[in-house]
Amino acid sequence: MAGILDVVVIGAGSAGLGISYFLKQQGYDHQVLEKGRIGETWRTQRWDSFRLNSPHIRSLLPGDVRDVPDPWGVSTQHQFVAYLEGYVERHRLPVKTETPVEELTRGDGLFLVTTPRGILRARNVVVASGSLNCPKRPPASAGLPTTFRQLDSSAYRNATELEQGAVLVVGSGQSGGQIAEDLILAGRSVFLATSRAGRLVRRYRGGDMFNWMTVSGFLDVPRRDIVLPSGKLPTRALLGATHTMSLQSLSAQGVVLLGRFLGIENGNLMFGGNLDEHMRFADESSADVKRFIDEYIRRAGLNAPPAEDDPAEMIAARLPSPPIRSIELATSGIRSVIWCTGFKGDFGWIKIPDTIDDDGQPIHEDGIGFLPGLYFSGLDFAATRKSGIIVGVAEEAARLVNHLARRSAS
């Protein structure tokens, strides 16, 4: 039928562009809609010193080869955006920017995609807007006085944009650890409220740890083996983009380590007594990953160098004694709080019954919606540990497009 697309892809980040590549390879008439610019969240939700955690060679989209002098180097967000823009041009992908989707509904057996430019009709829709674009804060954040400047990790750019005074960073996963280091290197006084987050070394046994995790199958561990007993997904482990980071190394640089942020009580910021537990968990998780890599090297018969101690893991922690359980707001000198407490996706525009759960997140299995023809790409931990990160784009995109093709042919 004229005017009916085979597929509409919503989102022109790495996930959406990977889907578009395979759709074009199989000859599907499709359109990629992007509410802003190509790679919008990379442009607007990263701090100035940000670097990708995956090296160039592991940051490629399907069908592409990146000719760079240093395949094991890392890109800035600006370099990666330029790469995405070039990818669209090289593969002549049908992307429409500045075209936000206002509503996704159904009608006459088709998907109806409403935009300011009109309504598109499609047999299939792939939602590739991601699940990490809306920051989450704990309820206790509402109790902080208005004199404090509060911002999320996605809004942080650099230390000079913050008010004079100390900074409290809440959360010690990738963003929290990297932002805490950025601030301490800028000469700011930094308090870090830690969380239960793993840790990864940057290099191990002669190779980049991210590469080891890719080739060994560590990133292929299925979602069912990752989900916590609570039903929640774990925090991504702390990994420095260019060097190993640890709670110990941060403390040695002057970051004051605290337990989990609990809230405010009688004018005091309150913290849990679980700092030691958080440090121990990070140590154990790092050792677990190394054992996984060691076993892979043994099975594959690789001639890898022996393991060496990483200075960031061996350095002695400088911890407050006694541990700090409360900080008086009036005398602390803290003027800014940066929330590094996770993200979720914005799917409120999907108005199709039984496609979104009570928390506003997609109902799916491995990215395949339960409504025939509806797919979700780029969701964190959707199918495996590498779902939602760049290295997982090619595999996921090929799988979803192949499923779509089989369904369309039946």
- Give the oligomeric state: single chain
On the 0 to 100 scale, the average pLDDT is: 95
| End-to-end C-alpha gap | 18 Å
Largest sheet: 7 strands, mixed
Output the number of helix runs.
10
Gross geometry = globular
- Rg computed from alpha carbons, rounded to a whole number of angstroms: 22 Å
Strand content: 15-25%
Sequence stretches where pLDDT stays below 50 over 5 or more residues: none
Count the E strands: 21
Class by alpha and beta content? alpha/beta
Helix percentage range:
25-40%
Any key phrases for this structure?
410 residues; 7-stranded mixed beta sheet; 10 helices
Task: Kindly describe this structure.
The protein is α/β, with parallel strands linked by helices and about 400 residues long. Helix content is about 25%, strand content about 20%. It has 10 helices and 21 strands. The strands form 6 sheets. Strands 1, 2, 3, 4, 5, 6 and 21 form a 7-stranded mixed sheet that branches. Strands 8-17-9-10-13 form a 5-stranded parallel sheet. Strand 1, helix 1 and strand 2 form a beta-alpha-beta unit. Helix 1 packs across helix 10. It is globular, with a radius of gyration of 22 Å. The two termini are about 20 Å apart. The relative contact order is 0.17.
